[in-house]
Amino acid sequence: LDPALLRPGRVDMTIAFGYAGRDAMRELFSAIYSILEGDARGSRMKSVKKASGQGEKQHVEATLTQRKRQCLSKEKIEELASEFASRIPEGEFTAAEIQGHLLNYKNEPEAAINAVEEWVRSVRAKRKEKEQSK
Question: What are the Mitochondrial chaperone BCS1-like ATPase lid domain coordinates in residue numbering (predicted)?
Fold first, then answer.
């Protein structure tokens, strides 16, 4: 940033955000895929259960089956989080970059894991291209 933007009186505090370590990667994964009380995914299941009529019941059953796949146990989420973190080089990507990847697969944690290595290659290629264009 321009030094004029960082002069005393304009900025009270500066904080450096570094690159994510394994713990931060696991925590991001867990935060995104854990279902918390009041989470929309959980509350939608309750409203779906109230359906009536044959067509609605078939839709409800399909929706509930899909929702059950999305509701992972805490232990499973921790296991997947460790797997995810192990596939990303430590100290090379920011938490924001990792979060962006995860949000592309908001309801598909396994897909986020399966796609992460290609994502790493893609981000590296974009960085290299940007560096070469300078």
Answer: 75-118
User: pLDDT, tens digit, for every residue of 54-82?
Assistant: 667 666 666 655 555 457 889 999 999 99
pLDDT of amino acid 88: 98
Burial of 123 (0-12, 13-18, 19+ CB in 10 A): middle
Q: How many CB atoms lie within 10 A of CB 30?
A: 17
pLDDT digits (tens, 9 = 90+) for 98-117: 999 999 999 899 999 999 99
Q: What angle do CA 19, 129, 94 make, to 5 degrees?
A: 10
Q: Report the number of secondary-structure helices (H) and strands (E) in the chain.
A: 6, 0
Residue 131 has, within 13 A of its CA and on its CB side, a CA count of 6
Q: Are 120 and 88 in contact (CB under 8 A)?
A: yes
81 and 96 Cβ atoms separated by less than 8 Å: no
